[in-house]
Write a structure and sequence with these properties.
Helicase, Ruva Protein, domain 3; mainly alpha; Rossmann fold; three-stranded antiparallel sheet
């Protein structure tokens, strides 16, 4: 038999003989014989408890029995999941009983604490626990034999039903205890207050030594009891734990570890709006370890409606049920009343009053942090926390969910997910609020329709029904953060950074600083944006072959914020074009010295520059004269075609070189007809200028493009015309080189060998006669009259 704690035995009157008393419970012989391990211990403890009279020792016995009862879950062989809820309810009942027992011991009420209602509640609990034990015994194997296992699993359905019935009974018992024990605690507090008032009257009548000895004790008890009642009122108003909560196990575990291992922990949960800070805080406050540590001493206050420190003090006092009227300052009174007991306080959305009343809010946190037994937790969008002794290690700013957790969240709302669900989650960077709102929309529309709306409307439609609020509208949440920012220069930099979906490498910041000198202090603004959780500092693995190191620090804007900025703060609007010009200059200056770090960002820089008259020509020159032989690797076809169209529209001298860049790109992609079209266009453009150096490059590229085309078209009737074209382009090239001996920029020997090899392979089969230029009719190296888009036979790009 498990012995009861010694302090409990001290409350049992010496005249009472426990062994002589008759138990209230009737435990069947079959159940007793089958019981082993924790099950047997529970039965023995219930037997002991059922023989006790109405006293504090009974509370110790039933509490110990419940503690052992919870361990049975590890011993059952079937219905483990169904057992979990029963054990959770038993654990919560035990927590209530322990708290009640401690208060009974503190007040010295002894044997006279049980009313008839409380006796009946405990008797019901004894029966429920005993019934549950009888069921759980049946969920255990009698022996390790196969026959025993088969017999157990054939009864699984019936046992599952019985375990669920036990769970429902235990849940009702929990509700009954919550109400019954709360009433008894209030009655005990009233008794203590009456005793203190009687003591005060006695002291006024007589100043005897006994009164001076009794009064401080009763006064201390009164203060403790009153503080307990304040905490219990606050705990009664605690919001429920989040119903949908995924992917935050590490954050919750770190906070719980800190709070349960430090006497007065100080934790800040920081991050952008909609990232899940409030959910993490509530999950911590409802965590079993926190419940066991603080029980009914948990307080949660939303600071969203507050605009000053005075508002926070007032709302916090009202949450505790403290009278806010009085001569003594409210902060002093609240701190004084909370000092005797331990507890945990969470101030949610602290950024709202902090931004408007910074100094006093910091002082408020200092005051709360002075409570030696109280843990303090805050949530805020602002990352620059007040200077108090925060617990170490600091909690990192909350990041978006992993894609697996985001899909779990989606699935819990929509009961499944598909490829469009994943695309939507990734499109909003797995921000929990955005994922939740999109999933709610997907309950009434297909995910394909929601995705098409996202592509058309972006974040505008990401909201749920009801009045717009930061919790049901993505735009409203972002708008709140920007309103708090209240800095036009910071908004301007956010406009610029929003253009880049992949973020900005930190090594480019000095270039931005130089480009915007005199107009914007880039580093100061970036610091401020990080302070408001509008920018994230990330360390990414750099997969570029031009990388100089294994990693690259970047600053990024979360997708929802970026799309909001693109929709509502267009860079060309409101006379912000000077920013646009400086931004294009940054990239153009960069291209002469290093490869672009990010292809998407390079495209964005140049597309912006091509659309603006002040930077158009410079961007065209950047595309043309950087990375001439490898531009197809860095600039996508879409950008090169846009540049060519822009050059033609505005009669830019870069048109010919751009045609050559496109020809190189198409040739590398083995799209030889298009490559030859582009080379012909370049030659046609240069006819008037007659730049010999450019023509040499054009004809060299023409010859090589035909050689490659001949390799690709191996048939005699299809390959021969390309060989002829290559030979004739080589002749023109050599003529130019003869007339300009200083321009030795092409290895004609390699071309001779390549053409000779093609002629050799094609010279012994059918169609060999086509290798004779005369057999193809009169040939001209001049462009076709119809332009480079007109049809040509047999080789595209030149007339025959």
């Amino acid at each position: 038999m498990v012995p009861l704690p010694n302090e409990d035995l001290a409350f049992v009157p010496a005249t009472q003989d426990r062994s002589a008393r008759k138990s209230r419970l009737s435990i069947s012989t079959e159940t007793s014989e089958k019981a082993k391990g924790a099950t047997r211990t529970v039965i023995e403890l219930l037997n002991v408890a059922a023989t006790m009279t109405q006293s504090v020792p009974y509370l110790g016995a039933i509490s110990t029995a419940l503690s052992e009862f919870v361990k049975i879950q590890d011993e059952v062989d079937v219905c483990k999941d169904e057992c979990r809820l029963t054990m959770d309810n038993a654990y919560q009942i035990n927590t209530l009983i322990k708290g009640f027992r401690d208060k009974c011991a503190d007040t010295g009420k002894g044997n006279g604490i049980f009313s008839e209602e409380l006796q009946l509640a405990f008797m019901d609990l004894e029966r429920i626990v005993l019934d549950s034990v009888a069921v759980l015994v049946e969920c255990k194997l009698d022996s390790p034999t196969l026959r025993s296992r088969l017999r157990l699993y054939t009864r699984r359905s019936d046992l599952t039903r019985q375990v669920r019935e036990c769970s429902e009974k235990m849940s009702k018992a929990l509700q009954l205890f919550q109400m019954t024990l709360q009433v008894h605690q209030l009655l005990m507090l009233e008794d203590i207050r009456d005793a203190v008032r009687d003591s005060a009257r006695l002291r006024d009548l007589s100043q005897g030594p006994s009164d001076h000895a009794i009064s401080p004790v009763l006064a201390a008890l009164s203060r403790t009891a009153y503080a307990t009642s304040l905490w219990e009122r606050a705990t009664a108003q605690l919001p429920a734990a989040p119903a949908l909560f995924y992917g935050r196990d590490e954050e919750v575990a770190q906070i719980v570890q800190t709070v349960t291992h430090e006497v007065s922990a100080r934790v800040a949960i920081l991050g952008p709006g909609g990232i899940g800070k409030t959910s993490i805080a509530l999950a911590v406050l409802h965590h079993p370890d926190i419940k066991a540590r603080y029980a009914t001493h948990r307080c949660f206050l939303s600071c969203e409606p507050a605009t000053s420190a005075e508002d926070v003090w007032r709302n916090l006092s009202l949450t505790f049920g403290l009278d806010v009227e009085g001569e003594e300052p409210l902060p002093s009174r609240l701190i004084s009343e909370l000092r005797p007991l331990d507890g945990i306080i969470c101030l949610d959305n602290l950024e709202t009053p902090w931004e408007t009343d910074t100094a006093k809010i910091e002082n408020l946190l200092v005051e709360l942090a002075s409570l030696p037994k109280v843990a303090l937790m805050i949530t805020s969008r602002l990352t620059d926390t007040p200077l108090i002794n925060w617990s170490y290690p600091l909690l990192k700013p909350i990041a978006p969910l992993a894609i697996s957790s985001a899909l779990e969240l989606w699935s819990s709302i929509c009961h499944g997910y598909d490829e469009y669900s994943q695309k939507l989650c990734e499109a909003v960077d797995c921000v929990p609020l955005a994922v939740t709102l999109l999933a709610r929309l997907a309950r009434t529309e297909t995910t394909k329709i929601v995705w098409s709306r996202w592509e058309a409307e972006r974040i505008t439609f990401v909201r749920s029904f009801g009045k717009e609020h930061r919790l049901n509208s993505l735009s409203q949440s972002i708008k709140l953060s920007l309103h708090m920012l209240n800095n036009e220069a910071a908004i301007d930099v956010l406009r610029l950074l929003s253009i880049f979906p992949e973020g900005l490498p930190c090594r480019y910041i000095p270039l931005w600083e130089q480009a915007f000198r005199g107009r914007l202090s880039i580093r100061d603004v970036i610091t401020q944006l990080k302070h408001h959780s509008l920018l994230q500092h990330v360390e990414n693995q750099n997969h570029s072959f031009a990388s100089t190191g294994p990693t690259s620090d970047e600053i990024r804007i979360l997708s929802p914020i970026r799309h909001y900025m693109l929709q509502h703060y267009e860079i060309r609007a409101n006379k912000r074009e000077h920013l646009f010009v400086s931004l294009a200059d940054v990239f153009c200056n960069l291209q002469g010295r290093r490869f672009p770090h990010n292809l998407d960002n390079a495209t964005i820089y140049l597309e912006l520059g091509l659309a603006h008259g002040a930077t158009r020509e410079r961007c065209l020159q950047t595309i043309v004269y950087s990375h001439q032989s490898t531009c197809h690797l860095f600039y996508p076809a879409k950008l090169l075609l846009l540049a060519l169209k822009t050059a033609r529209t505005h009669s830019s001298p870069t048109e010919g070189p751009l045609c050559l860049r496109l020809a190189i790109m198409w040739r590398r992609k083995r799209r030889y007809r298009r490559a030859l079209e582009m080379i012909h266009a370049a030659i046609q453009f240069d006819l008037g200028a007659r730049h010999i150096s450019d023509e040499i490059i054009y004809y060299a590229e023409l010859a090589w493009a035909n050689v490659d085309a001949a390799k690709h078209h191996t048939g005699p009737y299809t390959g021969a015309p390309y060989v002829v074209e290559a030979q004739m382009a080589l002749e023109v090239l050599e003529k130019h080189l003869t007339n300009s001996p200083d321009l030795k920029v092409v290895d004609t020997g390699a071309l001779h060998r390549a053409i000779a090899e093609r002629r050799r392979l094609l010279g012994h089969g059918p169609g060999a006669e086509l290798l004779d230029p005369c057999a193809m009719g009169p040939y001209s190296m001049e462009p076709a009259a119809g332009g480079y888009n007109s049809a040509r036979v047999p080789v595209v790009g030149f007339s025959v």
